Amino acid sequence: MDWERIADLLRRSEFHPTRLLILMTLLLKGKMTFSELQRTLKLTPGNLGSHLSRLEEEGFVKQRRDVLRLRYVKIIELTEKGYIALIDYLSSLEEVLKRAKRGDFERGFSRRKSNPAEDL
């Protein structure tokens, strides 16, 4: 995977930290009600609703109303497109970490080979 592709994925707005947290929570827990997701992530209803709207526009989540215990609730679930995008994103991060561990850098940070205590 080339660095430009990785950089493009990391810059995508749907991977804003809160949206990423929403997607990862849905990946791990499956579908959730709006209030369950809100409590789990400790977000305000407005903040969560705003992020969910953006993710729904991208086709990464779907929201539907359902009846649960005689009241309407909003059910949120990850779509196939959202699943694929999230896995692709996480795979890109994994590639960055692998390269960092190998010391694959053209410039910038270089790994220290010596013991830092020897510099004292």
Task: Give your account of this protein's structure.
By secondary structure, the protein is an alpha+beta fold. It has one domain: Arc Repressor Mutant, subunit A, CATH 1.10.10.10. It contains five helices and three strands; from the N terminus they run ααβααββα. β2 (61-68) and β3 form a beta hairpin.
Top CATH class: Mainly Alpha
How many DSSP H or I helices?
5
Could you name the ranges where pLDDT drops below 50 across 5 or more consecutive residues?
none
Helical content class: 55-70%
Head-to-tail CA distance between termini: 40 Å
| Gross geometry | elongated
Question: Which topology does CATH recognise?
Answer: Arc Repressor Mutant, subunit A
Rg for CA atoms: 19 Å
Short description:
With about 120 residues, this protein is an alpha+beta fold.
List keywords for this structure.
single chain, 120 residues, alpha+beta, Arc Repressor Mutant, subunit A, 5 helices, 55% helix, elongated
List the helices and strands and how they pair.
Elements: H1 3-11, H2 17-29, E1 32-33, H3 34-41, H4 45-57, E2 61-68, E3 71-78, H5 80-102
